[in-house]
Amino acid sequence: MGMTMAEKIIAKASNKLAVKPGDFVWANINTAMMDDLLGPRVVIADQIKKLGNTVWDKEKVVIISDHYSPAANITQAEILQFTRNWASEYGIGKYYEGLGPCHQVLAEKGFDIPGSLMVGTDSHTTTAGAFGCFGTGIGSTEMLGVLVSGQIWLRVPESILFTWNGKLQSGVFAKDIILRTIKEIGQAGATYKVMEFAGNAIENLTVDERMTITNMAVEAGAKTGLIAPDEKVFAYLSAIGAQRGDPQYSDPDAIYSERYSFDASKLVPQIALPHEVDKVVDVSEAEGEVIHQAYLGSCTNGRFDDLAQAAKILKGKKVHPRVRFLVSAASRSIYHQAITTGIIETLSDAGAMILAPSCGACLGLHSGILARGERAISSTNRNFVGRMGHKESDLFLGSPASVAATAIEGKIADPRKYL
Description:
Oligomer: single chain
Distance between the termini: 47 Å
Number of strands: 18
CATH superfamily of the largest domain: Aconitase, domain 3
Strand content: 15-25%
GO molecular function: 3-isopropylmalate dehydratase activity; 4 iron, 4 sulfur cluster binding; metal ion binding
Radius of gyration: 20 Å
Mean pLDDT: 94
Shape: globular
Number of helices: 14
CATH architecture of the largest domain: 2-Layer Sandwich
Pathway: Amino-acid biosynthesis; L-leucine biosynthesis; L-leucine from 3-methyl-2-oxobutanoate: step 2/4
Function: Catalyzes the isomerization between 2-isopropylmalate and 3-isopropylmalate, via the formation of 2-isopropylmaleate.
Strand order of the largest sheet: 4-3-2-5-6
CATH topology of the largest domain: Aconitase, domain 3
Low-confidence stretches: none
Largest sheet: 5 strands, parallel
Helix content: 25-40%
Subunit structure: Heterodimer of LeuC and LeuD.
């Protein structure tokens, strides 16, 4: 009997020839990532002293301060201070601050290795699946166990196969693919399962676009999202001097709990309505909804292609006078690239406020919080009640193109008219 990608990665990590869904294993961790939000300051700093006060392998631990950076108040500043001091105390050399959201930094620094197992104290660690890396989010208590043992206890998950074939029409992007997929199965439709994506529409996506899809797999409850690594992935890794890893691929006779097939050529821009990620409609059903803020950025859709697409739409145009248009690149390197190519200038000329690469606005910590009664469209991954500010604000989700088009009109708009 064949195995899926996920089963093969877990089997390798647990030193077994084969595993099947429902098996319980102890798996060896290749990379353990902590952020400032749920990192050393929560549980870990107090409890690790009781468990030997050592880290199992300092070379495999990464700490990235991104949620509170740059600090907006004293409390946030002290959390960042504590995090960097803890990293220094425990000899964690791979500490990064101010470079951007952790999942983009992990990719750029070469930690998303095909065939490896990664855990992180952030639910969107699933982003690593774009490289064929089994990335999954865990809590601080679980991370404490990983830090002292290098292992984690897992139940082998079932996998669901999502096949997207066909050519995307102009103005339709990876964000629309994942929103439509989540609409199909619901926000709990893949709970503790693996979402595996395949088909020529997926293969034609860039690595950046694939990261958008696996990033949002957790919004359907998935343990992770996976895409088979190909030459695009290996070229990306080679360009940054990262390892090729030990890529794993699903067998032809692998067993999936469910299979879904979609025609990408028929897909139109998608919008998630407040306050659920699976409350998704075609853009035509949301057009005209007035908004006050448009946000382009985050670990979901703040990459270079995303900024470039928005700049293409906004070039020579102006943001609606009622709209605050916020732009935050997914990393410092992307920000630099956007500067040198003129993209930042184009966005700024249109009326955008350029923010530091950070998680701040995405979850309402700083740099763009919504007031009571305000409405926003965002290229991020969640639109829960109060996600970006006041609990009586509304948040819509869409692609960077949809965000840009909406920023121009001051109401949700179909980006295809601008392309």
